[in-house]
Specification:
Elements (H helix, E strand, L loop, with lengths): L2 E6 L2 E10 L5 E9 L9 H17 L10 H11 L5 H18 L9 H12 L2 E2 L2 E2 L2 H20 L26 H11 L6 H11 L3 H5 L6 E4 L2 E6 L2 E5 L3 E5 L7 E5 L1 H21 L18 H14 L8 H14 L4 H8 L5 H6 L15
Antiparallel strand pairs: 1-2, 2-3, 4-5, 6-7, 7-10, 8-9
Helix pairs in contact: 2-3, 3-5, 4-5, 7-9, 7-11, 11-12
């Protein structure tokens, strides 16, 4: 309950307590009010009581105490509370916030205005990467992370508005995704049929399932359910490189698991690969690994190994420079879309939170061709 102290005829001090800090000190806020001359002397008591009640409501709902925190303090706590994201995603959020702290980190949440964020964008646009100015899309990604933090503060009733939502941003040039043609996809599948494992199976799964690199690296034999000649794959984790932490295993990017049907052809590839791994372990005298993708000593492989090997494979066979490991995922997604699979189903199979990413990434003029489904 608020404490009211009379200072003079029309001046009062209102104090509100709101729990204790970790060190045991009481959390309290006070403000001094002056009753306007327009308020009759008989109504002063009622006026002050109303002001005390309103001030206590503001304190109890968090607007006062937490809004005293700086943006850096609050965003650090926000990061600690995020549990649904993959380690690589959290790593991106952390690096993005560290990039903006020098410009807005010391500003209190309650004092953060759109103009401060506009100045942040101006400074970010001056930065370069590998000798070239940052793309506008990259600059706006930093702002989107800031906006996520501020939206959380608004949701928790710490600030009343999200200033990041008040900025008029320029349009960004959308870079079309490089999608292999059917002929290129067929050529690629023929090429990997002749390379050694684990690369052959890794890339075949990438084409057939559309899994991200980290999801493939985290696959275990127990993730597969054999149903006759076919099977079902459950994707529930990811292994990624996180700067400063090395390889970290966690949930998928959107924090949810998903299942994908496995054809007889793909299951035959996996059966052959599994047999080779059993023989490898038996001959090498080490335990058979729970994980699919291990080296000749049964040790987990670094995710970058698959990226670098594929780059050499592309270069040796004349594929475009724009192609990379994620290109195989793009082919999987675009193929399903252009074969009439509804966007919601495609989003679920690809591990997207909703269909929005598909709509602005894959639905553009470059992808008007009708491609057939990949078949390893």
């Amino acid at each position: 309950m608020a404490s009211i102290k009379k200072i003079d005829t029309r001046k009062y001090k209102i104090t509100v307590s709101n729990g204790y800090r970790p060190d045991g000190r009481k959390i309290s806020r006070a403000k001094t009010i002056t009753v306007p001359d327009s308020v009759h002397s008989r109504s002063i008591r009622q006026y002050v009581a109303h002001e005390a009640e309103e001030f206590e409501r503001i304190i109890k709902t968090g607007y006062c105490e937490d809004s005293e925190m700086t943006f850096q303090e609050y965003s650090s706590r926000w990061l600690e509370r995020q549990t649904k994201y993959a380690p690589s995603t959290l790593g991106f959020y952390r690096r993005s916030l560290e990039r903006v702290y020098p410009y807005i980190g010391s500003i209190k949440l309650i004092r953060l205005r759109p103009i401060a964020l506009e100045n942040l964008l101006v400074e970010l646009r001056k930065r370069t990467f590998r000798g070239k100015p940052l793309q506008e899309a990259t600059v706006q990604k930093y702002l989107s992370v800031v906006s996520a933090v501020l939206s959380d503060a608004k949701r928790n009733e710490i600030i009343q508005k999200n200033p990041a939502r008040m900025i008029d941003l320029p349009d960004t040039a959308q870079k079309p995704q490089a999608i292999p043609t059917d002929k290129e996809a067929e050529e690629f599948l023929n090429i990997i049929a002749d390379i050694d494992d684990p690369y052959k199976t890794f890339y075949a799964l990438a084409v057939y399932t559309g899994c991200r690199r980290g999801e493939l690296c985290a696959l275990k034999w127990s993730d597969f359910i054999v149903d006759g000649y076919e099977g079902i794959l459950t994707i529930s984790r990811s292994r990624s490189m996180v700067p400063g932490k090395g390889i970290v295993e966690g949930s998928t990017k959107n924090g949810r698991s998903r299942t994908i049907y496995m054809s007889e052809d793909m299951m035959n590839i996996l059966r052959s690969y599994c047999y080779d791994k059993w023989q490898e372990a038996l001959n090498g005298g080490f335990p058979f690994s729970d994980y699919l993708f291990t080296n000749e000593r049964g040790e987990l492989m670094h995710p970058d190994t698959f990226t670098k090997y594929l780059r050499r494979l592309y270069d040796e066979n004349g594929f475009p420079k724009e192609y990379h490991l994620h290109t195989l995922r793009h082919y999987f997604v675009s193929t399903m879309l252009h074969n009439g699979v509804d966007k919601q189903t495609v989003a679920e199979l690809a591990g997207h939170g909703d269909t929005g990413f598909l709509e602005h990434t894959y639905c553009h003029p470059q992808m008007q061709l009708k491609w057939t489904s990949p078949s390893p």
